[in-house]
Amino acid sequence: QVQLVESGGGLVQTGGSLRLSCAASGSAQVIDAMGWYRQDPGKERDLVAHITRDGVTEYADSVKGRFTISRYNANNTVYLQMNGLKPEDTAVYYCNAELYRSATELYWGKGTLVTVSS
Fold first, then answer.
1. Is the Cβ–Cβ distance between 31 and 51 less than 8 Å?
2. Mean pLDDT value of segment 91-102
């Protein structure tokens, strides 16, 4: 079992920056991959950024060059540095953890709201 707690969301003006953090706790000592997703009301949850334990990253096209994902394996924490924020980045951001066992286990945080004002 993995529990994920996000922090760092809030209100920011267009062009501003925010840093999201997600701390994992629980019985799993090794988390294979972590990521950030976002969701607008009435829409699907979409990938923002993803990082493996080895540091291989993947980004949605809409955030490339503006957002940076990083993780600290020793305490299973993942970060999302968001620069050059735009109103269309407004969403609830969710942290995700993946455990590759006999089947892939997925865990989600409760989300943190990011609002970018124009």
1. no
2. 94
